[in-house]
Write a structure and sequence with these properties.
The protein is mainly α and 339 residues long. The chain folds into two domains: 91 residues, no CATH class; 186 residues, Farnesyl Diphosphate Synthase. Helix 6 packs antiparallel against helix 8 and helix 13 packs antiparallel against helix 15. The protein starts with 10 loop residues before the first helix and ends in a 10-residue tail after the last helix. 48% of the residues are buried.
Length: 339
């Protein structure tokens, strides 16, 4: 994360110390083996350095960083499968869904699931959010368009909201109001990623921009699929980033409700999202060209890290701490019940 002693926010710098050890063997020879070869655990975890927010901030204790890396490994594995890393994604997702319960019971064999299981048991995490992430990737195999913004948000409740709930569970901070704020931030982060990756998703035949917005703003779907950043497409992306910025406002009360280290770590999630919104605005809301994330210049990355640091600092200090009564009493619904 961007913090006072690490303004570069270089995930590779902490990954070596925070990543749980994993085996080179990713496929086992029994009925719990995945159907087909999966990306190596090291390759999965290395993707953390390209995320829009710090996966496991150095301000957190090492044990918690390891737990967050373990959660990231699971979520990233689900996404890799859903994005076509194996020949039969649906079969592999079925395997992964079953592996969740084995992980919780301590009988998983895949290295990333072994470490996720340790985290589940250590923090008594419910398995529903893990199953939801798998379901989001199942949905990606058949649902390629979203008619309305509400439909897209429902998808985000499967693809992004569970991650925030897992993080709060690891921090021991999953009160109902915090879960509500976290849900908003995670939906916003997913919307920002959709805006950033319009063309990358289009290459897979997927469009995560509401059809009603494309139609209303005069954007032809063919322009999206052909990776043409037309004025109408830019207007559609601008609308989504405006919505995301409003949802990211939930990062301030969420961070304010948490103590010291946790406050900084959580503020960095929203700060990273706002930095990407700034970058999209600076580019006239043109989506990122395919492959741009991997080929990003040092200057562009430095600007984003600095922007994320500034937003993180502002979020962390912008609101006074809330009383325990207010934090506990804002929403009496179960923290884990899907809205």
């Amino acid at each position: 994360m961007a913090h006072a002693s690490q303004t570069r926010s270089d995930p590779q710098a902490w990954q070596a110390s925070a990543t749980p050890p994993v085996s080179d063997t990713t496929v086992v020879s029994d009925t719990t083996a995945p159907p087909g070869a999966l990306p190596a655990p090291e390759a999965i975890l290395a993707r953390a350095s390209g995320e829009n927010f710090p996966v496991a901030s150095r301000v957190l204790p090492r044990a918690l960083r390891q737990d967050l890396i373990a959660l990231y490994g699971f979520a990233r594995l689900a996404d890799e499968i859903g994005d076509g890393a194996v020949a039969d994604p649906l079969r592999a997702l079925d395997w992964l869904d079953g592996e969740i319960d084995r992980a919780a019971a301590g009988t998983a064999r895949h290295p990333l699931l072994v470490h996720a299981g340790t985290t589940i048991r250590r923090h008594h995490l419910p398995t529903e959010p893990f199953h939801d992430l798998v379901e989001a990737n199942r949905q990606d195999q058949s649902v390629l368009r979203y008619a309305t913004f509400e439909e897209l948000v429902d998808y985000c409740r499967l693809s992004a909201v569970p991650v925030g709930r897992m993080v709060l569970g690891v921090l021991g901070a999953a009160t109902p109001p915090r879960v509500t704020w976290s849900d908003d931030v995670c939906i916003a982060l997913q919307l920002v990623e959709h805006c950033q990756d319009v063309f990358e998703d289009a290459a897979r035949g997927r469009i995560y921009l509401p059809a009603e917005d494309l139609r209303r703003l005069g954007c032809d779907e063919d322009d999206v699929l052909a990776c043409r950043p037309t004025p109408a497409l830019r207007s559609t992306v601008a609308l989504q980033t405006h919505r995301a910025r409003a949802l990211l406002a939930g990062g301030a009360p969420l961070a304010a409700s948490l103590p010291g280290r946790f406050r900084l770590a959580v503020a960095a999630f929203a700060g990273g999202g706002l930095a990407v919104v700034d970058e999209l605005a600076d580019a006239g809301f043109a989506p990122q060209a395919p492959g741009a994330a991997e080929a990003g210049t040092t200057v562009r990355r430095a600007r984003r890290h600095w922007s994320a640091f500034c937003h993180t600092a502002r979020i962390a200090v912008s609101a006074p701490p809330r009383s325990p009564t207010e934090v506990a009493g804002r929403d009496r619904r179960s923290p884990w019940k899907r809205r």
